UniProtKB/TrEMBL annotation:
It comes from the Bacteria. Keywords: 4Fe-4S, Iron, Iron-sulfur, Lyase, Metal-binding, Nitrogen fixation, S-adenosyl-L-methionine. It comes from Desulforamulus aquiferis. Involved in the biosynthesis of the iron-molybdenum cofactor (FeMo-co or M-cluster) found in the dinitrogenase enzyme of the nitrogenase complex in nitrogen-fixing microorganisms. NifB catalyzes the crucial step of radical SAM-dependent carbide insertion that occurs concomitant with the insertion of a 9th sulfur and the rearrangement/coupling of two [4Fe-4S] clusters into a [8Fe-9S-C] cluster, the precursor to the M-cluster. Its cofactor is [4Fe-4S] cluster. One of its GO terms (biological process) is molybdopterin cofactor biosynthetic process. Pathway: Cofactor biosynthesis; Fe-Mo cofactor biosynthesis. The chain holds residues 7 to 301 of 425 of the full protein. The gene is nifB. This is FeMo cofactor biosynthesis protein NifB. Belongs to the radical SAM superfamily. NifB family.
Length: 295
């Protein structure tokens, strides 16, 4: 297990009710994703932007996009019908931090209505140096960052561009900014007692042999767990013709990395508006708006 001494007992108690961070919790507690973050600030070659963010979702399903007051209304409705709901996550359909005003407002409204709820954010990490202090101050204790590599030249094969502070950066330049910000952000969050889960998309022939190095690095920075996920080749994406990473390859890699850091093995790559127990999605029961294309 991760040796993260700054994590308080209160956070560990909450984590026991988080279906993604705790294997034992995933049959007992439900989570909901609120799709309040449509825009993204980078372009991953495995994403085609018609679908939800592959940080946290399977392709093929677009989401409705909610305003913060709509998010609160939806939370209340779901909580009423699913009392074992323990976690509210923001996982796209773009990036939670590229839509920070919406993300922050939605969390604040729900926090006011229900101080007990556990919040969870998923991000590509580009804006973490900017917003990690606010995340800590807001009392958010669970953050997922997708880190696919540590090397900007390798990153140039995974990310097409990065939009940062009004500029667009391509190739290794953009990847370098992204990687630096991810690592700086993870370190900061872990230092302040946030449990950081690192998602890694395993792309055969691109980053697979590099994954153990990523796991060791994020462990050194204080990450709590890593979640090695299969590449799901999305139509229209650069990796559309790549084979989907097999379960066997995935398990082998997880076994290898388990020596360094605990591995999540029950991720369902949920959609950005998923609701319910993991693997038992009830989002269609609660859909209340017309579907919109992500920005
Ligand atoms: Fe797509 Fe997510 Fe990558 Fe943004 S961070 S390009 S939404 S996969
Ligand atoms: Fe949990 Fe994985 Fe679903 Fe995220 S995508 S809510 S980590 S099971």
């Amino acid at each position: 297990k991760s040796d993260n001494r700054k994590v308080s007992q209160d956070v560990l108690n909450k984590t026991d009710k988080h279906p993604c961070y705790s294997f034992e919790a995933h049959h007992k507690y439900a989570r909901m994703h609120l799709p309040v973050a449509p825009a993204c600030n980078i372009s991953c070659n495995y994403c085609n932007r018609k679908y939800d963010c592959s940080n946290e979702s399977r392709p093929g399903v677009t989401s409705e996009v909610l305003s913060p007051p709509e998010a609160l209304a939806k939370y209340k409705l779901v909580k009423e019908r699913i009392p074992n709901l323990s976690v509210v996550g923001i996982a796209g359909p773009g990036d939670a931090l590229a839509n920070w005003a919406n993300t922050r407002k939605s969390i604040e409204l729900i926090q006011q209505a229900d101080p007990e709820v556990i919040f969870c954010l998923s991000t590509n990490g580009l804006m973490l140096p900017e917003f990690a202090p606010e995340i800590v101050e807001m009392g958010i204790k669970h953050v997922t960052v997708t880190v696919n590599c540590l090397d900007p030249y390798l990153g140039a094969k995974i990310y097409k561009y990065v939009k940062y502070k009004g500029q667009r950066y391509e190739g290794s330049w953009g990847a370098g900014i992204l990687i630096n910000n991810q690592l700086e952000g993870i370190k900061y969050l872990a230092q302040f007692g946030v449990l950081v889960k690192v998602n890694i998309v395993m792309i055969p022939g691109i980053n697979d042999s590099h994954i153990p190095e990523v796991v060791r690095k994020v462990k050194e920075l204080g990450a709590f767990i890593t979640n090695i996920m299969p590449l799901i080749p999305a139509d229209g994406s650069v990796f559309a013709e790549f084979p989907q990473t097999s379960k066997k390859e995935l398990d082998k890699m997880r076994d290898l990395c388990q020596v360094d850091l605990q591995q999540m093995r029950h991720c369902k790559q949920c959609r950005a508006d998923a609701i319910g127990l993991l693997g038992d999605d009830r989002s269609l029961e609660f859909s209340c708006k017309e579907k919109k294309e992500p920005v």
